[in-house]
Amino acid sequence: MVSLFYDGLTLLIMNTTILDLASQYLQQPGAESMLTFRPFINYLKNLKDTSSGNRKRFLSFVIEKYEQHAELLGTVQVEEIKDHAELLEMIYSILSPLIEDEEKLLWALSLPLRPVIFYSTNAYFNLVHHIASGVIHKKVTSMNAVDMKNNHLKFSYSLILEKCYNISSFFKQETVHSFRDEETGLVRYFKMNIDTRFIDIHMTGPLPELKVETLQSVGHDHDELIPCSKK
After folding, report:
1. Phi, psi for residue 120 in degrees, rounded to 5
2. Model confidence at 131, in pLDDT bands (50, 70, 90)?
3. pTM of the entire structure?
4. Rounded Cα distance, 225 and 211, in Å
5. Sign of torsion over alpha carbons 202, 207, 212, 216
């Protein structure tokens, strides 16, 4: 957990504990992935070009801060992220509503293609940390192994379709956790919305041909749509 201070004032307290939410379900190696903040900075640069006034100055400030830490624009080890809490707080400030209370807002940053959380609000951490620890919290009902693997596969394929074939949200995947309110006894549901704007996909070989007829015929059989053995 980290507290950030500016001019003697504590602005917020965020959690830098690493949580692997799928360590017991996704043990087989998947697509090769790496953590880097370069896609985020490239996105801000494009946004800055169409901005003006205070917004443009703020974006320039954030870009400059990140470029002063060149190691963050290459491959970053998740264990080293906690050393850059101030820069991560900038991401939170940009992507979350300014007036939201981080003690109530469910928000987090994770590795691409794997739900390894490395920066989160306390509200999010308190809701899901039982999954990573292996302790089943009585208030939350976690997904079983089959559902976890299927959701991961859907998410991977939806990214490929979106980033490589320009087909947006063809497979709409939603991750829902149920939560039993101890005060009312009612079950509440939380849907996880995943922001994929800062994930880039780089091919290691030619893409398989994808036709409209194939999309219409295979339904949700993802492996038939784009075989995993294809490189």
Report:
1. -155, 160
2. low
3. 0.78
4. 9
5. negative
> φ, ψ for residue 75 (rounded to 5)?
-75, 130
Residue 105, CA distances (Å) to 48, 83, 219 in order:
27, 23, 36
- Write the CA distances from 50 to 65, 122, 189, integer angstroms: 20, 34, 38
The CA distance from 28 to 212, in Å, is 31
Q: DSSP string covering 142-201, please?
A: ---HHHHHHHHHHHHHHHHHHHHH--TTSS---EEEEEE-TTT--EEEEEEPP--TT---
pLDDT at 68: 97
Two tokens, residue 35: 């953590």
CA 187, 114, 202, 107 dihedral sign is positive
CA dihedral 165, 198, 140, 20 (to 10 degrees): 100
Q: Which residue has the tokens 């703020």?
A: 58
**Residue 208: DSSP 8-state:** P
Give the side-chain half-sphere CA count within 13 A for 227: 6
The 8-class DSSP code of residue 112 comes to T
- List the structure tokens of 46: 């494009």
Predicted confidence band of residue 189 (pLDDT cuts 50, 70, 90)? confident
